[in-house]
Amino acid sequence: KDNESGTRMAIDDANAKGIVIGGRKVRFELISEDDQADPKTATIVAQKLVDDKVSGIIGHLNSGTTIPASKIYNDNGIPQISPSATAVNYTAQGFNTAFRVMANDAQQGRVLGEYATKNLAAKKIAVIDDRTAYGQGLADEFIKAAQANGAQIVAHEYTTDKAVDFTAVLTVVKSKQPDLLFYGGMDPQGAPMVKQMHGLGLKAKYLGGDGVQTTEFLKLAGKDSEGVTASSPGLPIDTMPGGKSFREKFVAKYGPIQPYAPYAYDATMAMIQAMKMADSVEPSKYMATLPKVRFTGVTGEIGFDEKGDVLGGAIT
After folding, report:
1. What would the pLDDT profile of 13-68 be if each residue is shown by its tens digit?
2. What's the start-to-end Cα distance of the chain, in Å?
3. Sheet holding 80-82, edge to edge
4. C-beta separation of 87 from 283 below 8 A
5. Contact 119, 148 (CB under 8 A)
6. Looking at the predicted structure, is the pLDDT value of residue 234 above 90?
7. Alpha carbon distance 68, 61 (integer Å)
8. Is residue 313 pLDDT above 90, yes or no?
9. Of 36, 39, 243, 306, which one is least surrounded by beta carbons within 10 A?
10. What does the chain look like in DSSP terms, one character per residue?
11. Is it the case that residue 314 has pLDDT exceeding 90?
């Protein structure tokens, strides 16, 4: 809903400007579908959006749904800009329809691995990932960077994005006596995992990516969230070029803000700018101008490299 609200806000702002494309005033409309964070459902809703003849796609949220959906959009020549999918594979497929305004997991995993060793002084590290495109990809990049900086990976355990009980994997991890546990996955698993970790008396520091950098994680983990460190692609909202004013406007309209709303806003504005540059809302026409888009958005400088990744992608 956070991504949807960020997109809706951009569409409302664009419609208020009375944009003219192809010699006539255009009105943008949002068609929203829920992929339920499920890869199979993602392909069903992707095909539905194609059948609805949409002009472009903002989404999906998760890497695990963005990647399978991206093939359908590519096969039908419809540009897609994800505000939040970070898996390297999304833009590594060679699709000229695939873009993102968020730093990828190669960038994020590298920074996390360096942070674990240099800032948290971790020597023995255990890793758990949820085997999704996001969780596994982030964990793999983290491991590479941590090892490159002299850390030893004493355990690499797996769970799923539906699991609720982590006692078995945490018991294995505890036996290895790590200084730090890194988790690649999202908040519904990250929060109970840290609670169960403390319950088992596992003293390691807990580090995660943007999947646990959420208000929901704090709510679910409660006091067990104290001392947890998590990364976030991009800048803290108050240091983004348009962050403070965006947050005020967003919160007044939609309530509490999650990490990705400003990225959804910028993704939408990037698509609209490409349409204006091409003087067309036809996907086949404005797709050629998307790689040339450059502007200062809410989140920072927006522009794309030859793969469709955002230029410069910061990590906090």
Report:
1. 999 999 999 999 999 999 999 999 999 999 999 999 999 999 999 999 999 999 99
2. 23
3. 57-58, 80-82, 98-100
4. no
5. no
6. no
7. 12
8. no
9. 306
10. -HHHHHHHHHHHHHHHTT-EETTEE----------TT-HHHHHHHHHHHHHTT-S-EE--SSHHHHHHHHHHHHHTT--EEESS---HHHHHT--TTEEESS--HHHHHHHHHHHHHHTS--SEEEEEE--SHHHHHHHHHHHHHHHHTT-EEEEEEE--TT----HHHHHHHHHT--SEEEEES-HHHHHHHHHHHHHTT---EEEE-GGG-SHHHHHHHGGGGTT-EE--BS--GGGSTTHHHHHHHHHHHHSS--TTHHHHHHHHHHHHHHHHHHT---HHHHTTTGGG--EE-SSSEE-B-TTSPBSS--B-
11. no
Q: What is the CA radius of gyration of the chain?
A: 20
The CB-side HSE value for 132 (13 A sphere, CA atoms) comes to: 27
The per-residue DSSP string of 280-307 comes to ---HHHHTTTGGG--EE-SSSEE-B-TT
Say which amino acid occupies 126.
A
What tokens appear for 187 in the block? 């908040």
Residue 160's region, left for phi above 0, alpha for psi from -120 to 50, else beta, is: beta
Task: Report the distance separating Cα 175 and Cα 89, nearest Å.
Answer: 34
Asked if residues 294 and 288 have their Cβ atoms less than 8 Å apart, the reply is no
Is there a contact between 115 and 207 (Cβ–Cβ < 8 Å)?
A: yes
Contact 56, 80 (CB under 8 A): yes
Q: Tell me the per-residue pLDDT of 135-158, one tens digit each, with 9 for 90 and over.
A: 999 999 999 999 999 999 999 999
